[in-house]
């Protein structure tokens, strides 16, 4: 999923840093893991699926960069705490946490099961809190750190069939602002990124609406339809890539992000502003 090894950031920018990326084995998370490793960080890639993290780590290590794998379900607070303690013990520090793990699917709210609601809210919102809370003592103890969470733009307006994910991501935005203020004295910067449409396999799967719903199917469309949407629906004229999001993560993780906290950065080629997110 790497677009180019050339980076706009200077080589060695994150040398000596340790970054933990949840959901870092595929899609946008993989793009983030790859760029942070390219810039010199040791990246701990975490996911529920061992295959995905192992493959991602192998790719990074094959390029002479540094990464390791952990299996982790962000819904399990005790497991998160244990994994974070193990990383801190093994590597001595955690400079960057990227809360990227997410679950999502289109489903009518009228019939959404309690467990389906719980699954998405627990991954997206509880998972972000569990991981942030777990790294807090490590970051506070070392004099600071950067937490960067993944939000979305769909909750800026109504987005049918996605009550669970939009409610959870609105919670992520609130958490970002609150923890930014609460943890600023410890020099922990807390920011979020709201990505626009990035056609990774996971997003395509999650964003295939039921046929009868009337919700536009942006991702499963034929190639020429996707090209047309990029031309007409995204002001900057192209679909996003994992590297677009990774670049913002790298900026926030770098010294350039030193005076930034509590901010939510929309990185979407202007899409939601021009369409209200549709
Ligand atoms: C209705 C569904 C469903 C669907 C699952 N469920 N899929 N209900 N429609 N399509 C219900 C199940 O029936 C079950 O409820 C409950 O959800 C939990 O399902 P499980 O499969 O048992 O859970 P689990 O294995 O933990 O899987 C979690 C998941 C899954 C969220 C359901 O989709 C997942 O792991 N996703 C991770 C990957 C992912 O979604 N990535 C895309 C993120 S894209 P019952 O009642 O039957 O027990 C994204 C992009 C944002 O976030 C930006 C956009 C611009």
Automatic annotation (TrEMBL):
GO biological process, one term: fatty acid catabolic process
Keywords (A to Z) from UniProt: NADP, Oxidoreductase
SUPFAM superfamilies per UniProt: NAD(P)-binding Rossmann-fold domains (SSF51735)
Any one GO MF annotation of this record: 2,4-dienoyl-CoA reductase (NADPH) activity
InterPro entries named among the record's database cross-references: DECR2-like, NAD(P)-bd_dom_sf, SDR_fam
Entry superkingdom: Bacteria
Family that this chain belongs to: Belongs to the short-chain dehydrogenases/reductases (SDR) family.
Protein name (Swiss-Prot/TrEMBL): Putative oxidoreductase
Organism field: Gemmatimonas aurantiaca (strain DSM 14586 / JCM 11422 / NBRC 100505 / T-27)
């Amino acid at each position: 999923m790497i677009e180019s090894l050339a980076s706009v950031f200077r080589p060695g920018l994150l040398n000596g840093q340790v970054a933990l990326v949840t959901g870092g084995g595929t899609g946008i998370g993989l793009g983030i893991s790859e760029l942070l490793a390219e810039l010199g960080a040791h990246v701990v890639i975490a996911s529920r699926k061992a295959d995905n993290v192992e493959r991602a780590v192998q790719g990074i290590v094959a390029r002479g960069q540094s990464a390791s794998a952990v299996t982790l379900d962000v819904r399990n607070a005790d497991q998160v705490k244990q994994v974070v303690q193990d990383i801190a013990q093994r590597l001595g520090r955690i400079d960057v946490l990227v809360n990227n793990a997410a679950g999502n699917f289109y489903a009518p709210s009228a019939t959404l099961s309690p467990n389906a609601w719980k699954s998405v809210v627990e991954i997206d919102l509880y998972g972000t809190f569990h991981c942030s809370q777990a790294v807090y003592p490590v970051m506070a103890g070392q004099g600071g750190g950067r937490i960067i969470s993944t939000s979305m733009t769909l909750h800026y307006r109504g987005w049918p069939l996605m009550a669970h994910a939009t409610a959870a991501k609105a919670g992520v935005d609130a958490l970002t602002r609150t923890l930014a203020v609460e943890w600023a004295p410890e020099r922990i910067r807390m920011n979020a990124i709201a990505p626009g449409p990035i056609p990774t396999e996971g997003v395509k799967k999650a964003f295939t609406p039921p046929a009868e719903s009337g919700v536009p199917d942006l991702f499963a469309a034929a190639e020429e339809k996707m090209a047309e949407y990029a031309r007409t629906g995204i002001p900057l004229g192209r679909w996003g890539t994992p590297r677009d999001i990774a670049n913002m993560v790298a900026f926030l993780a770098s010294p350039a992000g030193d005076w930034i906290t509590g901010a939510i950065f929309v990185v979407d080629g202007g899409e939601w502003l021009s369409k209200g997110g549709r």
